[in-house]
Hints:
Blueprint: E1 12-16, H1 21-32, E2 37-40, H2 44-53, E3 60-62, H3 70-84, E4 87-92, H4 107-135, E5 138-143, H5 158-178, E6 181-188, H6 194-197, H7 209-221, E7 226-229, H8 231-240, H9 245-256, H10 268-275
Parallel strand pairs: 1-2, 1-4, 2-3, 4-5, 5-6, 6-7
Helix pairs in contact: 1-7, 3-4, 4-5
The protein binds NADP nicotinamide-adenine-dinucleotide phosphate.
NADP nicotinamide-adenine-dinucleotide phosphate binds at residues 16-23, 41-43, 46, 66-68, 93-96, 116, 120, 143, 145, 188, 190-191, 193-196, 278.
Amino acid sequence: MTDFVAHPELGLAWVTGASSGIGRALALRLVKDGFNVVVTSRDHQKLVKLQHESTGPGKIIVLDGDVTDPSDMERVLAAIEYEYGSMVLAVLNARIHIPVHGEDMHREDFEMTFAVNLNGTVNCLLPAVRHMKARGHGQIAIVSSVTGYGGLPTSAACGASNAALINMAESLKFDLDKAGVRLQIISPGFVKTATTAKDEFPMPALISPEVAADRIVQGLKSRGFEITFPRRFTWAMKLLNLLPYGLYFWLINRATGWKTRPLVTEGHAVDVRKRHPQAV
Ligand SMILES: NC(=O)c1ccc[n+]([C@@H]2O[C@H](COP(=O)([O-])OP(=O)(O)OC[C@H]3O[C@@H](n4cnc5c(N)ncnc54)[C@H](OP(=O)(O)O)[C@@H]3O)[C@@H](O)[C@H]2O)c1
């Protein structure tokens, strides 16, 4: 079993999906803690802007790339390890969220979601584990969500990918512990970002990306496997998922007002994608 906790003196941090939202706030927070942080996303300009905004004492290193491309992630990892130094912390956070309505489903919404959220994480995980295993230590945190605990309205694609990420992390932990690589799962509640701008129901206990980043940093220093916040909300979600299904569906319908909503018209999903092009 490993208790390894990454520290700026030991090497670099890598944050994927760092051009906005939680990843961006986390990269800035880690820099404040003294880490040199490699930031990755598809949008080079946003990453450069982030680099200019950061005030140290650590520094931001921009290495853009698309997590859906395994060779791109191999290239980023090789650049980190051979040009900048050992990577001791990886926070795999790059995601998309496409709300899905059961009455207006599109295959591509599922395919794109799994390509980025699940396979994209695997594309980062493989080279990260290989380098850390060779060194005998490292820390990797995979960002999932409370939507991975159980089904919620509009979460069929994103929630399914988050559930898969939780299961994947639990399964891998058994082996990675022995290899000296500490694996954690991050399950936030609602955080005010481009992702939640698309949500169509009330979002209790909504927090800022900066608060989320603080909670993640605390969790990375702890010994726990799961980093979840704000607990008043995420623990309530955990408890809800222990209930019999009849009661679970009744309570979620009531809390979201979902049952009384009209069905969406055909093409709704296309409209959502047009209104939120940054999602894809
Ligand atoms: N916001 C919430 O309420 C909430 C709640 C629970 C969990 N989460 C989780 O927190 C994480 C971040 O969410 P967020 O709300 O901060 O979202 P966000 O602001 O939309 O950020 C998503 C990031 O992922 C990057 N990304 C998307 N596709 C990519 C690709 N193919 N390759 C590389 N990077 C890609 C985006 O950058 P580019 O577009 O520049 O590539 C962006 O930096 C996600 O894992 C999400 O599931 C969020």
